[in-house]
Amino acid sequence: MQFARRHAHPLARRHFRSGAKSGAGLAVHLGAAAIAATVAFGPVSASAVEFINVLTGGTSGVYYPLGVTLTKIYGEKIPDVKSQVQATKASVENLILLQQGRGEIAFSLGDSLKAAWEGNEDAGFKAKLDKLRTIAAIYPNYIQLVAAKDSGIATLADIKGKSLSVGAAKSGTELNTRAILAAAGMSYKDLGKVEYLPFAESVDLMKNRQLSATLQSAGLGVASLRDLSATSDITVVSIPKDLVEKIGAPFIPATIPANTYKGQTADVPTAAVVNYLVTHSGVSDETAYQMTKLLFESLPDLVAAHSAGKDIKLETAANGAIVPFHPGAARFYKEKGLIK
Fold first, then answer.
1. Residue 315: pLDDT band with limits 50, 70, 90
2. Given this model, what pLDDT does residue 38 score?
3. Same domain as 226, residue 197
């Protein structure tokens, strides 16, 4: 297991020792700004020159444990490949790194991917990221607005004047927060205080009674909110169906089932956005094919890593592609009869 600073160039990873043991991901945090840990898998022969860097999100989110599992699978099952997982600020940063060739596969929210392909500067993209290519549509992210029980927040409108963590700046979660507030006729100016923090740091502030609420865009049962609900009384705040329909695609109405979190005794309406695995045009067709194939051959491992894995399904993987498929992924879906 080796560690590297975020954004290290892929060629620098040749300095990792060969034969690194598989293991769970670790991250070293310095306050709110984390130095992302990378965890490497797979023995490398002298002739191996190909690297797969899996770009994820914060270590307390869903992308990270799924990414650790994919990293292990790719390192062990794709010949002559060195793989590693990298913790990041998630969607927006991941897509920028892919465009720069500083990662080979990444997790992203659908709305972030759409903004990247269009070059939406307000979303953090100064130009169209034209090298992005789709691997698969995977599971939906649920917009989970959770407030401290004693904050006085029972509805979305109650967030006015309160403190809210909106996700890391320019992250997919933060873009989701902006969309939800705008549909409700609000902006950050209506909040008492805005915190731009990853999931774990947001929960820490809530535990210390320094934050009223956090919005987290993640799979159901995300570790950060399970941790919060285990130690604090919470309210899972509903996002009404009509408001979600007002935003439109790629947002869809969804439900957080009762008992997803401790103390949540009823179903809660909310919004969901599909997540994607994305690569770039510089990745070889064979590598993209193997990454796609092994994703679906290893679904039990992904379910074991996080319950969100159960929503990753081959039959929906080729649906709703926002950017073109990588030719290697397209080859796999053609073999399965999912695209022509």
1. very high
2. 56
3. yes
Q: How confident is the model at residue 35 (pLDDT cuts 50, 70, 90)?
A: very low
The answer to whether residue 150 is domain-embedded is yes
What is the rounded CA–CA span in Å between residue 104 and residue 101?
A: 7
Domain extent for 119: 10-140+275-335
State the total domains in the chain: 2
**Domain-located, residue 319:** yes
Shared domain for 171 and 262, answered yes or no, is: yes
- Residue that finishes a domain, picked among 258, 273, 288: 273
- Mean pLDDT is lowest, of 28-37, 89-98, 331-340, for 28-37
What are the tens digits of pLDDT across the range 276-299? 999 999 999 999 999 999 999 999
Q: Are residues 280 and 135 in the same domain?
A: yes
pLDDT of residue 119 exceeding 70, the answer is: yes
Give Cα separations from 338 to 66, 238, 295, 297, 325 (angstroms). Answer: 24, 35, 16, 16, 12
Q: Give 320-330 pLDDT, tens digit per residue.
A: 899 999 999 99
What secondary structure, in 3-state letters, does the chain show? CCCCCCCCCHHHHHHCCCCCCCCCCCCEEECCEEECCEEEECCCCCCCCEEEEEECCCCCCCHHHHHHHHHHHHHHHCCCEEEEEECCCCHHHHHHHHHCCCCCEEEEEHHHHHHHHHCCHHHCCCCCCCCEEEEEEEEEEEEEEEEEHHHCCCCHHHHCCCEEECCCCCCHHHHHHHHHHHHCCCCHHHCCEEECCCHHHHHHHHHCCCCCEEEEEECCCCHHHHHHHHHCCEEEECCCHHHHHHHCCCEEEEEECCCCCCCCCCCEEEEEEEEEEEEECCCCHHHHHHHHHHHHHCHHHHHHHCHHHHHCCHHHCCCCCCCCECHHHHHHHHHCCCCC
Residues 21, 131, single domain; the answer is: yes
